[in-house]
Design brief:
47% strand; mainly beta; two-stranded antiparallel ribbon
Length: 201
Amino acid sequence: MNNTSSLRFPLILLTFIIFALPVKAVVTHGVHLSVNDSARRRPVDASVFPVPPANANTMFYLQRTTNTATLMYELNIDKDTGKPDTDDPMHVYWIRYNEKGQKEELNYIQRKFAYGLSQKSLGNDKYDIRFVSYKKFPLTLMKAADGKYHIFATVSQKLMALRSIFIKIEGGSFWLPNIVHVEMKGTDPATGKEFTERFKP
């Protein structure tokens, strides 16, 4: 993947993240929930962002300065086999740190057009994982040398075991936000060394 292609992924994903998140209307057990829109768009300093609790099934998480609500991308383990579910190996949900810290499922629009995943088994305990918002960017779910599952991505021609994505926004408007950078963190699967790739749109 060349540098241009690697940059296109976070930028296109970012468009969906900015446009899909501020409007929230979900139904949970027949109860309509809503959140004040202006409060949800209030920028949050990166230093106050919570780190999700350690969980062996968490592949990576995504945060934005829009607010502290965090998207979690976790393994969906089949209880019978102890392996990822063949048809649906990953589960995506919110931790609403900007509210009461509750877990919450994605609504239909978020799942189908923004933060959800397209998932396909490749055989040999390996899976092709793609964001529904940008299917041209492949992620691979598979076991690494440590015997654990990881999500692998190629970022700026470097292979990364992805751990987190962070998007920094400062000012601008809803339609024209001032995007400072998109940051992807992970480890080098060969050395285990942590590294960060940051992109300025």
